[in-house]
Design brief:
This protein is elongated. The protein contains 4 helices and 2 strands. The protein has a two-stranded parallel ribbon. By secondary structure, it is an alpha+beta fold.
């Protein structure tokens, strides 16, 4: 992944610093899609990678910076005309990454994390 963009129909931004902080949930979805997996022990049924020492956590170099764009007009159903931003950007990230993998490799992956063994 070399570039990411999130376009929010958020109208007027009240506190830009807080809204720009909503980039981090998009990092979460990229981590889930590419790295996170719960491994269970077949014999006991217990989670085998229950600690951070047992599972891969990406660093900043693994996840590129992203552009956040605010578009749209005032919300007519709200007295002050604002809309929430929240973690709605999470909805399409996994699908976008899976589609990018499909277009790059020709292989459709329908499970996360998307790893090399699923592409071979």
């Amino acid at each position: 992944m070399t570039r990411r963009s999130a376009d929010h129909s958020s109208t007027r931004v009240a506190v830009t610093l807080i809204v720009n902080g909503e980039k981090r949930p998009l990092d979460l979805d990229a981590r889930v899609t590419l790295f996170e997996e719960t491994v269970t022990d077949a014999g006991t049924g217990r989670v085998a990678n229950a600690t951070f020492g047992d599972y891969l956590v990406p660093v900043n170099a693994d996840i590129p910076d992203m552009e956040v764009v605010f578009v749209g007009g005032p919300d007519p159903f709200n007295p002050i005309g604002v809309k929430g931003v929240g973690e709605i950007g999470l909805v399409g990230m996994a699908a976008a990454i899976a589609n990018a993998v499909f277009h790059a490799t020709g292989r459709r992956v329908r499970a996360t994390p998307i790893t090399l063994d699923l592409l071979l």
